[in-house]
Amino acid sequence: MATLPIYLYGNDILKKKAKHLSEITDHDITLIQDMFETMRESNGIGLAANQVGELKQILVLDITEMEAGEGTKPLAMINPTIIDDEGEWEMEEGCLSIPDVREKVWRAEKIRVKFTDVNMNEVELDADGMLARVILHEMDHLNGVLFLDHLSSTKRTLLRAKLKRIMKGDVETSYEVVISGEPKSKTKKK
Ligand code: NI
Questions:
Q1: Which residues face 117 on adjacent strands?
Q2: Cβ(42)–Cβ(60) below 8 Å
Q3: 124 is catalytic
Q4: How far is the CA of 120 from the centre of ligand 1 (A)?
Q5: Residues 142-183: tens digit of each pLDDT
Q6: Which of 65-74, 99-108, 129-138 has the lowest mean pLDDT?
Q7: What single-letter DSSP state applies at residue 1?
Q8: What are the structural domains of the chain?
Q9: pTM value?
């Protein structure tokens, strides 16, 4: 397994829609393993393929440390779709692509999500609370949407200077990153 550099805010790939997978190749399996490794190394609880430079409808998540004993386990989802949602709640979110920015975001409280697992099985899952939130945050990534897009324009204006610094790579991370506009080969670690 390998860790992959994470694309930072400002990179176009984070605004693009990921493509539906009609089959799962060996490359995709390796990608999923690497995404798990990258997420753990960077202390993240979720990661979408866009964030590691691949426009594929794949996300991984692991909230076992936050909800120990509640039956949660690490999950990889391919082609996830929301088939039902209910309620609304607000909570602070962060994102590995937007280091040091945390803001409150409204999300559905309960969801029913359909996805393909790594064995090509169709799965339907009911999720609520934190699990639902992480799934919705990562699914947003697959649609080219960031949690910042849910904020009011006033809040976004207040974050402008900070976001500019992230775009320039002027931010400390414990993980390898790709700065906006840079080719994939040029990465930076602090
Ligand atoms: Ni994110």
A1: none
A2: no
A3: no
A4: 25
A5: 999 999 999 999 999 999 999 999 999 999 999 999 997 665
A6: 65-74
A7: -
A8: 6-176 (3.90.45.10)
A9: 0.93
Residue 94 CA to ligand 1 centre (angstroms): 7
Catalytic residue of the set 54, 93, 103, 138: 138
CA–CA separation, 165 vs 35, rounded Å?
A: 26
Phi, psi of 93 (to 5 degrees): -125, 155
Query: Closest Cα to residue 76, out of 130, 126, 39, 22?
Result: 39
Q: Which residue has the tokens 């060996």?
A: 26
**Amino acid in the structure at residue 70:** E
129 exposure class (CB count in 10 Å sphere: 0-12, 13-18, 19+): middle
pLDDT digits (tens, 9 = 90+) for 54-90: 999 999 999 987 776 666 789 999 999 999 999 999 9
DSSP letter at 139 equals: H
- Alpha-carbon distance of 147 to 169, in angstroms, equals 19
According to DSSP, residue 142 is labeled: H
